[in-house]
Amino acid sequence: MTMNTNGGRRKAAKPPTIHDVAREAGVSRGTVSRVLNGGHYVSPAARESVEAAISRTGYVVNRHARSLITGRSDSVAFLLTEPQERFFEDPNFNVLLRACTQALADHDIPLLLMIAGTEAERRRITRYITAGHVDGVLLVSSHTGDPAADQLREAGVPLVACGKPIGHAGKVSYVAADDRDGAHDMVRHLYASGRRRIATITGPLDTPGGIDRLAGYRQALVEAGLEADDRLVATGDYSRASGEHAAERLLAAVPDMDALFVASDLMAQGALTALKRANRRVPEDIAVGGFDDSPAALATTPELTTIRQPWDRIASEMVRLLLAQISGADTSAVILPTELVSRGTV
């Protein structure tokens, strides 16, 4: 209740309803409902009238009421199967989350961030998702043996993975950058700069990016006629600390290395710290190439030569495939090209 200017009480104005929108637009309630649910079987003129009426009346969709009718929650989950600290350390996750949020906002669909870094967290979040609280899942950073993809797929939850889901070929939709080709391009670039002892720090070898970037590295070495020496390979986990420790191991094992391909920019940051501590100049003594073109690539000295992943396109394609799947489409996959970005470390 509110007070009027004469001291009396008056009822608060009721929020506009779908009937108000229909009356304002001069169409039926059913036409308004069809516009709100995607605009199917509505003429362009009627759609324009309804949208103008919504703007004039200030009508806001009652999502709870609509979900009771459609059986949908009108929301999507961004499920990250990594420890919470990794979300805050790795800038790629924030970039992807922001891009997915924007792509879904264009459809007026909110995105819920869910982090499941432990088995208990995965069980709890899987129960929540399969209970129907979201309409679909954007799955990020799925490792070999991670049961999340299997459980969600078996429960019939629409699902799109970022990166090739290992062991689920043809069963789970995914969008990925061409990791193998990107790594191949970087190693060829290092070779073209005159380097011949090219080492690598891989990502986790139970992830698609870790596997495919290592494969691209090895392919480029073979094509260049260089020795594929196992001592030139050290494994990291995409964290800055792992890149630093892996670079230290490589310096001890192959002190004559003159180039280093690192499978993520964040690990490359750590590797550059180790090289500086060992008094190795970059790029004069050792050239360094990264992968991702994340904000971390611009935070190094010199700035990092790297492989750009098209995060905005990855996000928009993930959202497109997920919304199509929610509407009944089959699983599908999209692989997007990468781009070499030359800066100061090569």
Can you offer a commentary on this structure?
With 346 residues, the protein is an alpha/beta fold. Helix content is 45%, strand content 15%. It contains 13 helices and 14 strands. It has a 6-stranded parallel beta sheet, with helices on both faces. Helix 1 (18-25) packs across helix 3 and helix 9 (179-192) runs parallel beside helix 10. It is elongated and about 80 Å long. Mean pLDDT is 89; it is low at 67-71.
Separation of termini?
69 Å
Strand content: 15-25%
Q: Give the helix proportion (percent range).
A: 40-55%
The total of helices stands at 13
Query: Would you tell me the overall average pLDDT?
Result: 89
The geometry reads as: elongated
The oligomeric status of these chains comes to single chain
Element pattern in H and E: EEHHHHEHHEHEHEEHEHEHEHEEHEE
Short descriptors:
alpha/beta, 4-stranded parallel sheet, 346 residues, single chain, 15% strand, elongated
SSE map:
Blueprint: E1 2-3, E2 9-10, H1 18-25, H2 29-36, H3 44-57, H4 63-70, E3 76-80, H5 84-89, H6 91-105, E4 111-115, H7 119-133, E5 136-140, H8 148-154, E6 159-162, E7 173-177, H9 179-192, E8 198-202, H10 208-224, E9 233-235, H11 240-253, E10 259-262, H12 265-277, E11 287-289, E12 306-308, H13 311-326, E13 333-336, E14 339-341
Parallel strand pairs: 3-4, 3-5, 5-6, 6-7, 7-13, 8-9, 8-10, 10-11
Antiparallel strand pairs: 1-2, 12-14
Helix pairs in contact: 1-2, 1-3, 6-13, 9-10, 11-12
Offer a quick outline of the entry.
The protein has 346 residues and is of the alpha/beta class. The protein contains 13 helices and 14 strands.
